[in-house]
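Standup notes
- HV: blocked on the assembly model, inputs below
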Amino acid sequence: DSGVTQTPKHLITATGQRVTLRCSPRSGDLSVYWYQQSLDQGLQFLIQYYNGEERAKGNILERFSAQQFPDLHSELNLSSLELGDSALYFCASSINTPSSYNEQFFGPGTRLTVL
Amino acid sequence: ELKVEQNPLFLSMQEGKNYTIYCNYSTTSDRLYWYRQDPGKSLESLFVLLSNGAVKQEGRLMASLDTKARLSTLHITAAVHDLSATYFCAVVIISNSGYALNFGKGTSLLVTP
């Protein structure tokens, strides 16, 4: 158990809908990362937040957005869902500061199925 | 754009045999990670390699890093069934204000009796 929690574990929804995935980082970790894992794209970095601020952005679609709240939990919002958004979404956290990088620890993931 | 290439992508090996998984990356980095993933599960950190020439071993797995060649290897010694999983290497991308991991496609390992 990495100490990173994600809810829900599974999510089934329809095309065109909007969902929110939630992540709580390890105690003391200020950085949160979101990754998408799909069969065709592999593991892709989406976005990083540090202490409430967006720090790095990867291949995140405009239909997707994220935020990190004052209590450091993070939410990933996916809207206008398409079949191709079906994937395993991971959250990771680390004790990064802006000037140093430390290992990321991954949560159990949320499996999203879009029908 | 940083590219991380693993090979092989699929590996079926007999118990007791040795094999090496290779991870090449396209730009300079001095930090490389190896993760293990069981089907439908999360990523488990195996090794953190932080400098050129770094070598780390845990049980039947040994990882090394050559930053000049931009190459990391994960060597499996005397494979056992419990090692069946997908193994990913990942390289840190450092931007002006943040960090991210860039993953290889993964090596799916099956160890058979």
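- HV (later): unblocked. The first strand of chain A starts at residue 5 and ends at 7. Chain A touches chain B through 27 residues (CB under 8 Å).
- Next: hand off to the docking folks.
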